[in-house]
């Protein structure tokens, strides 16, 4: 078995990992760089974007741009796999932002959690994890008598994260190598609140403020679930536009029976303000609401009507508001309104990374990726357990 971090050995975005044998190659993710990231140049990747594609397959951990953003570069004959609900969420988004590119996404093959997929002499088992993208996955890869756990992006402080260690104790036994994300090792947050605590604080804000606007990623389903259930607890109605309602309906239809967290049956839909029925406007006026918004002109009439008496909850990475990674349009959009930041990361904390390492106990060690500070693993699990690779360097396992 060979393990190669083509990109992501010392950066967060743009990740591409390869696990291969003499006859087959499994690639995991092909992402875009993050805004402002001092990333390595993207060159052709043999077997994935150039060269001989025989025996190559691509697996996607989830639909975030830093993991799938360069999918168009993949040779068209290569099979691409991702989670079933994740694909539906992605197609809903693509329909809005890249309709002409829809065919390449429609070709994606889907899998179910813990359903083993055999690619020649390599087998891959996807394990669903908690992340800020819904239906995200770790992969257990078996080849040439070795077992590798690729963590993708994950966390344990979300609604479903508590199950991670138990899941790994069942499905990730006798692991030789962990290929682990380390996003939070370079970030300075002193504390990371849980998703449940974020929901509790949201209830308090919505009770104090009749009109609440929540600005978060349209595909961060667990964050939206926190706001939705907070609005119900605060006695407010929950409103969003038809695109967002479609995303929530997609998740509700597939998962509401398994968990009430994803029952979004009480949402109300609004689009252009001039077309909102009079009765719904009266209901919004009297009961108050939580409205999901995104940057752009579509939501300004609502903010102009209610914003002076309400608040905007900004619930995304703080880097989009300040520093080299700031989004000028987003900064401008928020500048006119009273807003507070209420967010928690979609990534594992240093304590969680340590916990997972000791739970899995890899025989050979841990290979960092998706991190600007991979050497940070040394301080939490010990130098002898960390295998630092450079982009393109091959580990013969």
What percentage of the residues does DSSP assign to strands (E)? 15-25%
The tally of beta strands, per DSSP, is 19
Give me the side-by-side strand order of the main sheet.
6-5-4-3-2-1-19
Low-confidence stretches: none
What gross morphology would you assign? globular
In percent, how helical is the residue content?
25-40%
Name of the CATH superfamily of the largest domain: Ribonuclease Z/Hydroxyacylglutathione hydrolase-like
Average pLDDT over all residues: 95
Major β-sheet annotation: 7 strands, mixed
What is the third-level CATH name, the topology of the largest domain? Metallo-beta-lactamase, Chain A
Structural domains: how many: 2
Spatial separation of the terminal alpha carbons:
5 Å
Kindly list the characteristics that best describe this protein.
6-stranded mixed sheet; 7-stranded mixed sheet; 2 domains; alpha/beta; Metallo-beta-lactamase, Chain A
Task: Briefly say what this structure is.
With 397 residues, the chain is α/β, with parallel strands linked by helices. The chain contains 12 helices and 19 strands.
């Amino acid at each position: 078995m060979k393990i190669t971090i083509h990109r992501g050995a010392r950066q967060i975005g743009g990740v591409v990992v390869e696990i291969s044998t003499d006859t087959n190659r499994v690639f995991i993710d092909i992402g875009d760089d993050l805004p402002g990231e001092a990333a390595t140049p993207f060159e052709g990747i043999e077997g994935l974007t150039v060269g001989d594609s025989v025996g190559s397959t691509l697996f996607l951990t989830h639909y975030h741009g830093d993991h799938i953003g360069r999918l168009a570069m993949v040779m068209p004959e290569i099979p691409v796999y991702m989670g079933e609900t994740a694909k539906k969420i992605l197609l809903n988004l693509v329909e809005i932002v890249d309709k002409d590119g829809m065919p390449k996404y429609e070709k994606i093959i889907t899998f179910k959690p813990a359903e083993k997929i055999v690619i020649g002499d390599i087998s891959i088992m996807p394990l669903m994890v908690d992340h800020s993208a819904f239906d995200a996955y770790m992969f257990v890869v078996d080849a040439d008598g070795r077992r590798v756990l690729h963590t993708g992006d994950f966390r344990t402080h979300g609604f479903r994260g508590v199950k991670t260690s138990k899941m790994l104790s069942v499905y990730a036994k006798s692991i030789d190598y962990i290929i682990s994300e380390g996003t939070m090792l370079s970030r300075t947050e002193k504390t990371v609140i849980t998703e449940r605590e974020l929901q509790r604080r949201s209830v308090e804000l919505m009770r104090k403020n009749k009109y609440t606007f929540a600005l978060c990623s349209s595909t961060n389903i667990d964050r939206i679930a926190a706001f939705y259930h907070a609005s119900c607890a605060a006695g407010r109605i929950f409103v969003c536009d038809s695109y967002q309602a479609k995303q929530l309906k997609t998740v509700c239809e597939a998962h509401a029976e398994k968990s009430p967290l994803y029952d979004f049956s009480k949402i109300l839909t609004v689009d252009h303000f001039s077309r909102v029925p009079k009765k719904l406007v009266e209901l919004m006026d009297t009961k108050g609401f939580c409205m999901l918004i995104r940057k752009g002109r579509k939501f300004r009439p609502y903010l102009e009507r209610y914003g002076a008496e309400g608040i905007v909850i900004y619930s995304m990475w703080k880097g989009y508001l300040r520093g080299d990674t700031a989004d000028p349009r987003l900064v401008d959009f928020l500048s006119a309104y009273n807003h507070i930041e209420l967010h928690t990361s979609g990534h594992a904390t240093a304590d969680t990374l340590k916990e997972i390492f000791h739970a899995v106990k890899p025989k050979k060690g841990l290979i960092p990726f998706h991190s600007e500070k991979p050497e940070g693993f040394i301080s939490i699990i010990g130098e002898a357990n960390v295998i630092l690779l450079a982009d393109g360097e091959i580990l013969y396992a």
